[in-house]
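Shipment paperwork, digital attachment
Item: protein structure file
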Amino acid sequence: MPAAAAEESCGINKTVDNICRLSPDLLEEACQHILIYLQGRATGVDSAQMSDKFQRAGVRLDHEALQNTIRFLLLTFRSAGKNNLSGDGLVSRLEESSNKWSKASLQVLHKLWSEHGASVHAQQEVQAMLSIGQLVDIQWKLGMAVSSDTCRSLNSPYVCLLLKIAEPSGQICLKSFEMTIPQFQNFHKQFKEMAAVMETV
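Attachment content:
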């Protein structure tokens, strides 16, 4: 076995050992937090809150071990959702990755994934369909086109918009466009209609 693969296997086994140190109730509670996040019902996983609960239950994990545990469970559930695994499929994958799993831990993961796996998978499908950029900033300016190569005396006002968009990849891109005053008035009218609809939601 190459050194990198042996090191990775050792890291997985260490994380699995830490997970198996948790009581079934504590593991279930930690997994619930992660599953709620993966179902889009929370903005993140609060590792400080988890650490506090682990310590009150007598389980001491250093910061790195806690982060590795959370990361491992997140990746496990994400991968299971992406591959639309059943509870049995998830347990089979986990058993293939490490022989350190306790029966009690696998039962908890099987039960929770059987209950929540379909909704995690559905949330991932929605996120994939909606993977569009998010508006970060908008800038505008009003200008006056005085003349052009086709018209000496244009004297036409226009609005220039610059949109800063965060792409799903994380990159920021800029999009700019110009509108005549009638186009801008139509654009404004449509935004007012959207705002009115959003207020009713």
